[in-house]
Amino acid sequence: MSEEAEVTRQREQPSAAATPEDDLDLPTPEDLRAAQEVLAAQLATAEDRWRRAVADLDNHRKRMGREMEAAREQERQRAARALLPVVDGLERALEFAQSSDDGLVSGITAVHQQAIDALRELGYPRIAAEGAGFDPRLHEVVSVTDDPSVAPRTVVAVLRPGFGSIGRVLRPAGVVVTRETEGS
Fold it and tell me: How, if at all, do strands 173-178 and 139-145 pair?
């Protein structure tokens, strides 16, 4: 191309100093509103996802707390069940050694009390039964007796100690209960 043609071509092209709107495709107000609506919808979707994720995390945290507490309770119960034969054996040893006055009996008594205290600390206190009214949640009837001097359905003897509390029984107390009279 010749110099003259180049100069002509440059003259025909609009100059940069002309109007900037001529070169730019500016969005219309409708385009801006549509883009704003799209962004608002995307923001609402992201916010909804965020809220759901927070709620899921909170639910997960609560569920894990419940599961951890249930696992702790199961382990506490397992440990307490392992102590029951020890307590029973110590009670039999104390019954056998009652006639003896030596230091062995006081040692067995001390160990027996430690075992009962350990069960209490695990959440299973000894069930107070003798003289109490029969409660099927805490007591297991081993025998029934007639005793007119005692109110019906009263525990008169404990044959096997129980441990726990209402709603959380490790082992019910094996008891002898007075019979109900026909009039009551």
Answer: parallel
